[in-house]
Amino acid sequence: MKAVTYDAYGGPEQLRITEQPKPKVGPGEILVKVRRASVNPVDWKILAGELDPVMQVYFPVTPGWDVAGVVEATGFDVPEFAPGDEVLAYARRDFIHDGTFAEYATVPARAATKKPQGLNWDEAASLPLAGLTAYQVLQRMAPKRGETLLVHAATGGVGLHAVQIARDMGLRVIGTASEKNHDYLRNLGVEPVAYGEGLVQRVKALAPEGVDLVADFIGGVRDETLAVLRQGTGRHASITDDTVAERGGHWVWVRPDRDDLAVLAEMAASGRLNVPIAKVFPLEETAEAFRLSQEGHTRGKIVIRVSD
Question: SUPFAM superfamilies attached here (predicted)?
């Protein structure tokens, strides 16, 4: 089968289209004929070797943890899926080797859910990692309807999911973003504030008694987070800064969870959650997709089109 691979750590220039064996489908797994995958920052961070201290890597590596496609075959004891089912998944494994930027990918059944009819392939592939990250961060803080949430990097890939999920939960949402994205956030029901110097004062002008919750999707904002939290009851979480645990916060590493993903897929299919798409690249242009993601200026997800 055709797959994107790399044989050593480095930058996008390491990525090649190669022929690889069609993966075996083991017990508790499904074999997916891939329609779409999507790029996440973790993909090029793995390529750069940044996760080498914590995850085992076996070269050649096929990158990609997000996937949407059609079940080709099932392994032993997978009663919940059958060939022909349309699925999406956060297909992370406990090691790095065979990812989703390929014509076929094996996925643990526990990580996949069926794709609702109202969700197109681009959206389905874009939802898993970013959507689950946002959802699990919010759940970890145990939000209550009517509380106020501050989202750092509200127009990033995870942030855009988080602000919409939070609004659906009945939260008041304040989001940091550059001025050019403020109208976009207002249209989502979010109160925008500019990031950078003076952030604490801007947030306190909107929430004088402090915010109840802070979700950090960018890092480097721990002091600002603590300064705007409501005294005594405020909760905070980060996906980038493990030091928040030292100050009573949650450091969250997203987990594959088909039940959570099913909730998000239904939200998106029903129109309660918009999954923004920045650009779609063919599999052969995956290196360009990585470069665009590394620039950090896109609003929405970058999709890899594998087949139609």
Answer: GroES-like, NAD(P)-binding Rossmann-fold domains
